[in-house]
Amino acid sequence: MAAAQPSSLYAPSALVFTVAQGDDVATSTVVRATTLSCAPTAQGTHPDPQAACSALNSTGGALDRLLASPDPDRACPMHYAPVTVTADGVWKGSRVAWKYTFSNTCVMSATLNGNAVFAF
User: Fold this and answer.
1) Alpha carbon distance, N-terminus to C-terminus of the chain
2) What is d(CA 51, CA 28) in angstroms, rounded to the nearest whole number?
């Protein structure tokens, strides 16, 4: 009996990203969503799949690194209107279920600082 062979030389990388109004993924209202596949080529409904795949590759699979460079010159109001971003799917063959909640859209924008992954 022949051993099973992989169907591709690339580990699968296909994710769904969402931006939702609220702090509980189960009850939040999704306001935007996109898909992204990075292997063997960048594609999906994301408006700039190549830039998003490059940004994800730079994290080494640690999506919290997308949050590492907030804009220090941006001031945001202190009102609480939570926004939750999520990433679900597979990255380089490993299951991903990641979420992060910001206190409001201004804080989200300042923290992501134009990162291509959530620019949809």
Assistant:
1) 47
2) 27
| Dihedral angle, C-alpha 81, 88, 43, 11, nearest 10 ° | 150
pTM above 0.90, yes or no: no
29-73: per-residue pLDDT in tens? Answer: 999 999 999 988 999 999 999 999 999 999 887 899 999 777 788
Identify residue 11 by its one-letter amino acid code.
A
Closest CA to 71 of 115, 113, 108: 113
If you write DSSP's letter for every residue of 7-69 in order, what string do you get? S-SS---EEEEEEEESS-TTTPEEEEEEEEE-SSS-BSSSS-HHHHHHHHHHHTT-GGGGGS-
Averaged pLDDT of the chain: 89
